[in-house]
Structures are given as C-alpha cells and as structure tokens.
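Hi team,

Filling in the usual template for the complex we talked about on Friday. All components are listed, including any nucleic acid strands or ligand strings, so the model treats them as one assembly.

SUBMITTER: L.P.
PURPOSE: interface mapping
COMPONENTS: two
RESIDUES: 498
SEQUENCES:
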Amino acid sequence: MAESASPAAPLLRTPLYDWHAANGAKLVGFAGYEMPVQYADGIIAEHKHTRTRVSLFDVSHMGQISLWGDEAVRALERLVPADLLELLPWALRYTQFTNEAGGIIDDLMVTNGVGRLMLVVNASRKAVDLAHLEARLGHAVNVALLQGRALIALQGPYAPVVLARHAPRAAKLSFMNAIPTRIGKVDVVISRSGYTGEDGFEISMPAEAASDIWQRLAAEPDVKPAGLGARDSLRLEAGLCLYGHDIDEASSPTEAALAWSIGQRRRREAGFVGDARILAELRGAPKRKRVGLLPEGKAPAREGTEIRDEAGATIGTVTSGGFSPSLGVPIAMGYVEARAAKIGTPVSLVVRGEPRPARIAKMPFVPHTYHKP
Amino acid sequence: MADFIYIKSHEWARIDGGVATMGISDYAQGQLGDVVYVELPKVGQKVEAGGQIAVVESVKAASEVYAPLGGEVVEVNAKLADDPALINRAATGDGWFLKLKLANPGATSGLMDEGAYAKFVESLK
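RESULT (copied from the run log):
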C-alpha cells in the first residue's frame, strides 16, 4: 500500500483534544488542527449512527467571528448575496463571501445575535476571511475572532430528545434559529443547524466549558462521538459543499447551485461584491453547474476525476467523491457544462484511466430531515 | 501451512507450491479504516515484484496495493466484490486479494518474516 504523508507543521488542538485522544480517536491534520477523523467504531458505523440515533462532533476548529457596530448588517450585506436585513432576531442564514469576480471566498453561517452578528466560517479560511472583513467592512464595524470559544454539533434524529434534558428551551427551536441559554451554569448559544442533512444543533460555548458540556452529552445513552470522516460522508450524501473542493474563488454561488441562498431583494437591488457576474448568471445561465453523480458500478470516483459526455468529450470534473454508507454505493458531486446538467444524463467518469458509466443525479442523495414545523 | 512474508508497503504473501496468496496486513486495514471497494486485476495479468497489482478504497481514499513477489495472477478473491469489508474483518485470512503463480519461487530474499514485520510496524507507531 502507498503510505500517506503527514504534514510537518505543528498542529493546533481544540479544547476537546485530550478527550479525543483518550477515547480511541484516530487524529489527523485538518486545516491546521489535529482533529479526530474517526473513533474506534469507524466512519461507516459513525455515519449510520448519526442517521439513526445521534452523534457528537467537535467542530471547534471552525472560526467564530463577532461583528458589531451601527452599520454592521448593511456593511456585511455588501460582502454577501444573502438578505440579512430581513433576518429576524436569533435567526440564521447560510451565505457566501464573494469576490469581485463573483467567486466564493468562503461559505458561512450568519446569526442575528441582536446587537451583534455571529459568523461561523471554515477553519481553513479564518485568516483570509478576517483580512477580507477588516479591509472591506469599514471603521464603523468591529470585527473579533472569538478564539476562546468551542463549537460542538449534536446531530441526528434523537438530538432534540437528548438536548431537552440539558437545554429544554433550545430543544424547541425550529431549523435555522438560535437561542442564548445555559447548560448547567454555562452561558451558551444553541442553534438548530448543522452540516449533516440531519436534524440537530450546534452549541457555541466558552472553551473552558467545552470538556464538561461534551462529557455531559457523550454520557447520554444513544450518543456517540463521530469524527470528520463521518462528517464528510454525511455532508456529501446531503449534497452540501465543502469549501476548497466543491466551491472556491473561481466558482460562483450560481454555478455551485447555491442560488437559493441569494435574497430576492438582493437580486433586485444588487450592491454586493461580485454582483455583476452572479446576477448575470441568474438572468441567463451559468456555463457550468454543480451536480450530483451516481456511478453505475461500485468504484468510487474521487475528487479530480474527469467527467465525459457520451461522445467522449470532457465536460467537467468531480469535486467530491466517495462512498455513501446510507445507500451502500459510491456517490459524487462535481461541475459539468450546463448542457449536460440535467438529472438522468448519462456520463462517464474516468477512474484510473478507464471511463466508467454514471448518471447526473438529484441531490441530496439522502433526504434532509431538518426540523421545519 | 507456509509462513507469512511481508513487505514495507504492508502487503503479505504466503507461498504454497509455487503459488503465493497475497493481501494487505492487519495493520494496513486498521490504518485504512472501512474498506468499501477493491479493484482486482484480471486472471492472467503479470506483475513484477513490487509492482502495483490492485487498488483498495476506504471511505476516505484509494490506496495502491503492490505485489510482494513477481508472477502471474491465477485467481482473485471473488468474495471481495460483494463484501470488501472482509478485508477489515480478516485481512490475513478470508480477506486475501489474489493468488500469483510465481515467476521465481525462490526469490524471497529481502522480504520480512512475521517477527521482522511486527518490529517494523512497531517502529511506525
């Protein structure tokens, strides 16, 4: 077997590192952090447990940023295509920082924290995002990276039952809403959100409280820890983008099939970085589109795999590909020329030099079960 | 039954009457995690010692598998197509990959025996 190289740079650790190391985690470098990729049960078991019960994920490596100041909402709106003015108190929105060319600098969650905006950004993009915010928001808006905070995701159908025993008010939230509350004596912010396609919650807390809150939740029957491996296979089944793979500075939100996250008012008024390209693509059609791909055989098609049409012409590239533990078959997503993006279109995926049959598939591969009463 | 021999890229072989059965080590399957797919060669394919002969894919990644010895593929493990997790459950048993008719049955110098491989694995931890 070919051995994989390990990175040489010193890795950061989350406040839960000791727990992971003591509880059978296989630790790997990810976005500069030493993170659990899986625990003893393995990725497939952790994935299935999340879909059928409930799992606990340490996502403290992600960037938590606070913005405040009189014009914070309007200033942030200039950097994203989402409608933030209509965001109700303690509601969340998924959006993207866009660049002048209409590409994506990062994707993020924004919460209206009443008096401040709370952002959660990708670990690998923290420094880039901060520089972007500081350069673009103007002096009236304050920006702070909250380095002293941890983030835990509780994901799966049993998540509300488990959370109700620790934070009963939060357990009644609807999808994409948050609440400032307490677990024990600790002030936390809990949102009904996540990145697995399942119902669930994300809990932001002071770093020093992370170990205690994690252990309280981990001690619950039905709760098991899950690593980044399961997080990745869960988000792929859910059709969700991974920054640096499915979206990057060259891909626009429209190409990435994220137009649903662009506000109606923003389409009319424009006024955000990269609006020329993005609005033009909304009126017409982007040249390429992010699509789901279902290989017909059992061989996974990994990131970078060439996609061809039936005539053998190259029409795109796989950006995320692997195995779906829920479906028991390989799944992938990637970009293809718009003419080939229709669901059901036969294509081939060139794996190890051999074109193998596949079809453009509907995403999500596994239906979302978000709590939307 | 013949003894196991190993190479540093974590494949094993067991020679019996000029034919070597081969697979990946228990350490290797543990490092890979859940195996979801194996691409095996066709019967009749020839390989040099140390040449790539198969691909094993876990949930996360694809890894190349090398032949500890040179020869011609005479059989592949058909059970792996429907149950690749056999490799996780029994890497050095039912999870074997293929059998090679050896080009040169005596050419086992430089290969590790079980004890030497155990020491090698220990040195990686």
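MY TAKE: The helical segments of chain B are 26-32, 79-82, 86-89, 114-124. The mean pLDDT of chain B is 95.

Thanks, L.
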